[in-house]
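Thread: Modeling a multi-component assembly for a lab meeting

Hi all, long-time lurker, first post. My supervisor asked me to bring a structural picture of a complex we are working on to next week's group meeting, and I have zero experience with this. I have the sequence lines for every component (1476 residues in total). Could someone generate the structure of the whole assembly? Inputs are pasted exactly as I received them:
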Amino acid sequence: MGSTLGRLFRVTTFGESHGVGLGAVVENIPAGLALGEEDIQIELDRRKPGQSRISTPRKEDDRVTILSGVFEGRTIGSPVAMVVYNENAREKDYSDFSDVYRPSHADYTYHVRYGHRTYRGGGRASARSTIGVVAAGAIARKLLRELAGVKIAAYVSSVHKIIAPDYLSLGADAIREKAESNDVRVPSAELAESMARSIQDARQSGDSLGGTISLLVENLPAGIGDPVFDRLDALLAQAMMAIPATKGIEIGSGFAGSEMTGFDHNDEFYMEDGKIRTRTNRSGGIQGGISNGEPITMRIAFKPTATISREQKSVNEKGEEVKLSVRGRHDPCVLPRAVPIVEAMAAIVLADQYLISQTARIDRIKDQP
Amino acid sequence: MGSTLGRLFRVTTFGESHGVGLGAVVENIPAGLALGEEDIQIELDRRKPGQSRISTPRKEDDRVTILSGVFEGRTIGSPVAMVVYNENAREKDYSDFSDVYRPSHADYTYHVRYGHRTYRGGGRASARSTIGVVAAGAIARKLLRELAGVKIAAYVSSVHKIIAPDYLSLGADAIREKAESNDVRVPSAELAESMARSIQDARQSGDSLGGTISLLVENLPAGIGDPVFDRLDALLAQAMMAIPATKGIEIGSGFAGSEMTGFDHNDEFYMEDGKIRTRTNRSGGIQGGISNGEPITMRIAFKPTATISREQKSVNEKGEEVKLSVRGRHDPCVLPRAVPIVEAMAAIVLADQYLISQTARIDRIKDQP
Amino acid sequence: MGSTLGRLFRVTTFGESHGVGLGAVVENIPAGLALGEEDIQIELDRRKPGQSRISTPRKEDDRVTILSGVFEGRTIGSPVAMVVYNENAREKDYSDFSDVYRPSHADYTYHVRYGHRTYRGGGRASARSTIGVVAAGAIARKLLRELAGVKIAAYVSSVHKIIAPDYLSLGADAIREKAESNDVRVPSAELAESMARSIQDARQSGDSLGGTISLLVENLPAGIGDPVFDRLDALLAQAMMAIPATKGIEIGSGFAGSEMTGFDHNDEFYMEDGKIRTRTNRSGGIQGGISNGEPITMRIAFKPTATISREQKSVNEKGEEVKLSVRGRHDPCVLPRAVPIVEAMAAIVLADQYLISQTARIDRIKDQP
Amino acid sequence: MGSTLGRLFRVTTFGESHGVGLGAVVENIPAGLALGEEDIQIELDRRKPGQSRISTPRKEDDRVTILSGVFEGRTIGSPVAMVVYNENAREKDYSDFSDVYRPSHADYTYHVRYGHRTYRGGGRASARSTIGVVAAGAIARKLLRELAGVKIAAYVSSVHKIIAPDYLSLGADAIREKAESNDVRVPSAELAESMARSIQDARQSGDSLGGTISLLVENLPAGIGDPVFDRLDALLAQAMMAIPATKGIEIGSGFAGSEMTGFDHNDEFYMEDGKIRTRTNRSGGIQGGISNGEPITMRIAFKPTATISREQKSVNEKGEEVKLSVRGRHDPCVLPRAVPIVEAMAAIVLADQYLISQTARIDRIKDQP
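Re: Modeling a multi-component assembly
Sure thing. I ran the full set together rather than chain by chain. Output:
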C-alpha cells in the first residue's frame, strides 16, 4: 500500500530507473475531464533533469504515454495509466556499482527491508520515481482548475543560508511567472543569480546544498478536509514528507507560531464583500483540519543532496569500514526540480479531498447520481 | 475515512464531548497480546484534564471500558473497542453557546463543511476527541514493547520563548522519568518551574502560549517503513499533524538541516559490535523512508491555544462583525497534556508499519500462517 | 481490515457474545440525516432471539445506545458509534465449555488462526456478531430512503425442501408487510405454517434446517456500482457471503440463467413514460456491474444450523476422536432472523456506492463542496 | 477504488480495448520472488481469443511487458506494473458504432454513470479488461506455489444444459491436464466434443450459451481468512462476481446444501496421519470464513453471452424503440476462456489473505521484521 496515495482520487505509482518504465495509475477521475498527454508533459518537463546549468547534465526526454482511461480527449471514468519509458534501460551500465552503503542514502535500509540494494542512480528510492507523482499531479491540478479555479504555485524560498523574503503575497500567477523565468525557481532574478552561484560553488567543491520550498494554493473553497486523521494539513504533511530528501514541513505560522501568544496568533474574522475572511492567515488557510477559504500556505525543508563527490567514510555490505568517493552527474541541489513535485503532491491531496467533500452534507447530495 | 488511521493495525476513533462517550476501535491486533483496561488507563490518566495547577481546572475521570476483543486478559484477534463515557453529557449546559465564530477555531470551517456548529467546549474538533487516539496508542505501545522492546518518550521542548536544550541523549527511560515528575513534562525541574510560571502568567492575562514537543523512539528495528508514500517519516508527519493545534513537524535535522551542506549533513556509517551504526543521526533514524535502527527523533510545533479570554473581534453566523469574550476553564497551554498524544500517534504508526513489514521479504514469510 | 465493510460509508463492527458489548462505528454518514436510537432499535428487534416459538427461547433485550455522531436528532458528520451491551456478560457460565471441535463450526479454524477457541455460544463467529451489521444497516437504509426513496425487503423463500413461489412481483411494501406478519418471514400465512411445523419437527429430532432468502430492492437509481472489482453485484455478493451460514448467492436469473440461450436471456429494452426500462429482469437490476434502474433481485442460500443436539463424531483439541452431544437453546433454522441481516448488508453496500457515485461525472460535481 | 482488489497484495487494473494498452499494477509482492514475463504470458495465452474453433476468430497476440518491480529475475518489493498493448488501437474502425443500447450489455448503464458509451467491442466493460486480472493472478499463483505449494485448477462444469459430473475428486493436477487438452476446458474428451458441438450450433443460429465453472484449490493451509467481512468465502464471492457475465456463486454444498438437514450436512472431523481432517467437505474448505485445510471448492454461474446476431428489439440513445442486429466475431460461449480468469481471481484473493494471515497471532510474528 506504500505506493498508493489518496482515498478516492487514488494514485498508484510504479517504476525504478533501472526498469523499463515509470508512471502512475490514477483511479476515480470523474468522467468528462478534458485531458491529453500535453497536460501531463508540461509538468514532466519542469521536473526532468538537464534543464539548466545548475541541474545534472544528464539529459532525459521523459515523454509520457497515456495507456488508458481517456477517449477522444476526455476521461471516461476508468483508471488513467501513464508511463514514461527509461531510455536504454536494459543496457544500463552497472560496472560503477559498488557494495558500499552511501551515507544518508536508502542503500542500507532498502537492503535490510527488501534483501536487495537500490542500485546506484537507480532503484525505487531514486528521485526518478517521482515521475509518477508529477504525472498524476498534472491531472489533479487540471481537475481542480476546472472544478473551482484552484491555483497552485511553489517556489524555492531558500538555498542553504540564502533565504528569500516572503513572496506569498505576490499571488500564485505572479509567483509562477517569476519563478519559472529563472533556473532556480525563485521569484527574483537577483536572488536566482546568487543562489545559482552558491549551487555551482557547492558542485565545484564536491558538496551539495539543501533549502526550502514555499507553497501557495489559491481559490480552494472552504470546507475541504476530513477530520480527525485526514485533516487537510495532516494529509498535506504526509504527501510532502513522502518527497525524497524532505526533513520538515510547516503550515501557516509553523514553528514560529509556537513562540507567539494566542492573542497575537489568532486570525481575526471580518466581512469583505459579504464573505467571511480573516485579517491575518497564521492558520495557513486551514482551521480544525478544514480549509477556510483563505490561501493555503506551507513551507517544506529539504536536506542537502546525499550524493556528493567529496570522499566520505562508510561501511560496505560485508561490514567493513571503507572510504567512498562517488563520481557522477548528480544534482548538487534538488530544490529547483522539486518545485513541480511539491505542487503535484498538493494537487493530488486537494483533488482527493475535494471529491470526498461532495458527500459531507446530506443537503448537498444529488438525488440522481 | 477521516476517522481511521493505519492500514493493517487500524484505528477508528469516535466521539464528541457533547455525546455519550468517546473511544476507538482497533482492528488487527495480533491475537495473544496480554491486555487489560489498566494498560489503557495509565495513558488516559496522563492526558486527562485537571491534573495540575497549569491545566484546566475541569476534572474528568475518563475511565476506559474495553467492550470487546479481549478474553481472559489476552487479545483474541477481533477488534478491540474501547469507550470513555462523558459525565453528565446529556445534561450539559449550552446556555453559554453563542453564534460567534471564535477566531482560529474550527467553528467556521465545521459550519461550512457539515452545516452545523461545533459547540463550545464540545464537538469533534475538541481536544477531547484525542481520547480514542491515546487509548489506541496504549495498545500499540504495548504491542511494540512485546515484539521488540520499543520505547517511546516525548517531552515538552519549548513553551513560548523558553526553549529547552536537547534532552534526546538522555534516552527514553530517563526522559520519561524526568518529564513525568513535573506538571510541564519537561525533563528539568528548573525549566518546569519557569515554564509553569510563564503559563500561569498567560492565564492571568487571559492569553495562551504555544510551544514544541520532542519525540524519541528507541529500539525500533531497521527495515520499517513502506516507500514511496508510506515512508515512515511521511506517516509520522500525518499522524502528528492530525493532533489539534499542530503547525509543523521536523524529523532529525529538520529545518536546520536545510542550511547545511551535504558533507556536513550526511550520517557516516561505522561498525559497532558487529552492527551497522551511524555516527550522527541527522536522518532522525529514517533513511529513504525506512528505519535504519538508530533512534527516531522528531519535533512538533503547537500553536498557542485559540481559546483565550481577552476580548477579540470576530463575526457571527449572520455575518455581523462582533466582539467576543470567552469565559471558561480552558488550558492556556496544551503542551503538557499533548505529550501522551504525541507518543500515542507515534505508537500507532509504528505498530502498523511493524506488522506490515512482516511480509516485505519472501524469505521471511512463514510457510504455515 | 476484516471487520470493515464499505469504502466511503464505512462500517466497522466489533464485539463477541462473551464480552461487554457489541456494535459498530459508521464513518462518513453525510451530516444532517435525522437519526435516533429508535431507527436502529426497530431493526435490532427484528434480529433479536426469542421472538417466537420457532427461534431460540433465549431472551435478549438488545437495546442500542448511540455513543456519538448524533446531536439534537441529526448526524453531524462524525462517526456514529453504537453499542448493545451483553446481559450478565461477565458472569457467563462456561462450565458447559468443552474442548471438542464442533463439526462445521468455526471452533477449529479460529483455533488455528488465532490460537484460541471461539467459546461455545460466544465468540466473534457467533451470529450475535451481526448486531453491528443490523445497526449500521439501519442507518444505511434510512439514508437511502431519504436520498432516493429506496426500499429494501427480503423474505424467506425456502426452508429445507419447502420452496415458496416467486413473491418478488408483490413489491417491497407488500413483501415487508406480509412477511413480517408471521414468524417465518415468508409472505404467505399458509407457507409460514408448514415451514414453522417443519422447523419444529427438526428441533424435536435434534436436527436443523437450511433454506434460502430472496431480496428485493426498489427505486435504486441507475448508475450505481463501480466496475471492475466493485461491480454492484460483486460487492453485494461479498456482503451476503459474509453472513454466517451462507453457502451461495445468485443475482437475477442466477444459476438457472446459465442454462438459457442469449436470445432467451437478454433483457429487451423499451420505453415507458419516457423512461428506459427492460421487459424482463434476468439481469437482476444490474448490467455491467452498474444498476440499471430496475429492481435488484438476489437469492442467498443458507446451510442448516451447524449446532444440533443429535450425537455426532468429532475430534478434540488433543487430537482424540470423540463423540459429541450439544445441549442448548439454539435456533434450529436461522432463516427468519437472517432476513433483517440480509437487508442490512444490502443497505450498507448500496449506501456506500450511492455516495461514491456522486463523483463519477465531472458535470455533476458541485462547484462549491 | 473500483479498479483495485486486495488489501495488502493489491491489484489495480487498467485499460480498455480502444486504448493504447491494458494491464495491472500489483503492490506488496514480497521481495525475492523469482518472476519473469514468461510466468505471466503462460496464463495470458490461456485467456487470449482465437485459440480454437469455438472461440472468436479474432487473433490477438497479447504479449505482456513488465515495466517495473523486477530486477535480475526477482521481485524487489516495489510495484510490478505490466502492460499488454492493443494492436492497431489508434486506427480502430468505429464505423460500426451505433447508438443503440445492446440488451443485457453495459452500454446503457455506463452511459448513465459516466456520460459516455462503452464502445462496441471496446470499453472497460469488455472482457478484454480481464487481461490485468489474469496477469496479476499469474503472480499471485506463483507466490502461493512458492510459499505453500498451493494448486489452483478450474474447469467448465456445464455448457447450457450439458452438465458434467463432479470432477473435483480428480485433484488439481489431473483436472488441469485433462481440461487443458481440449478447447472447452472440461476434463473429458467426450464431453468436450458434445459441448463444442452445442457451442457451434449456437453460433450457427446466431445465439449464445451460458454455463458453469467449477474451481478447486489444493494445499491451502488452515487459518486463512479474516472474519467478519473478509471471510475467505466472501472475498472469493466478490472476486468471482466481478468477472463479466457471472450471475451466481456457491461454495461447498452451495444451494443444494440449503435443502439438507444439519445432521446430514455437518462435516465430521476425524484424525488422519496426525492431522485433523473432515470426512465430507460440504464446507468447501472454509468454516467460519477461515480455511480449514481441506480443498476449497466453488462453482460459478455465467449467463449466455449478451452479444448475439439474432435480431433483437431495443432502444437507442434518443429513446426510440429500434431493432438491432449485431454482426461481429464474438464468442458464443465465454466459458472456456473464463477458466483462467476464475483461477486468477482465486489466486489474487488467496495470496492477499495468505500474507495478511502472517500477523494474526503474536506468537508467530518475527521479532526482526
